[in-house]
Amino acid sequence: MTEFKAWLNHYQKRAIQLVQSINKIPRQVLFLLLFFVLVILAFGGYVYWQNKQILPQTKTLSTKKLPQETRENLKIVRKISTGETSIASQKTGYTKSVEVVITNSSDKPLKNIRFVERIPKEIAKSIEELTFNIQPTAILNKDPDVGIRRNKTQRGSKNYL
Fold this sequence. Notes:
This protein is of the alpha+beta class. Helices cover about 30% and strands about 40% of the residues.
């Protein structure tokens, strides 16, 4: 308890010294400093507002989970999402995405995991319409089917594609 009192006493003295030193600064300088702080805060708020207006925003409209697959201590969950993109509150288009989550439920790491992901036609009719966060190992068909291979997954780990 005495350490806390000593610490509190020290910082009370420092606070008093700070207030006394501020009182020595002329009022005009303090007002000028306050003015610059307010200008910087206003500018920061304006930049934030501008970025919110300029950068594309995506609002999720619907999400649908596909049947999950379980094999060899591996759980594969797929989810399709549809979103609406806008810039400055003006609708610019729609996005569709497929999220694949691979979870290792075994007690040991799994190696050379391979599976084929068939992208639903409602997402894309051809592989050229797609972008990937993680590139597939192989494009099996432009209709679009992709092969995915992971070298290793640890126990309990999740891999997002």
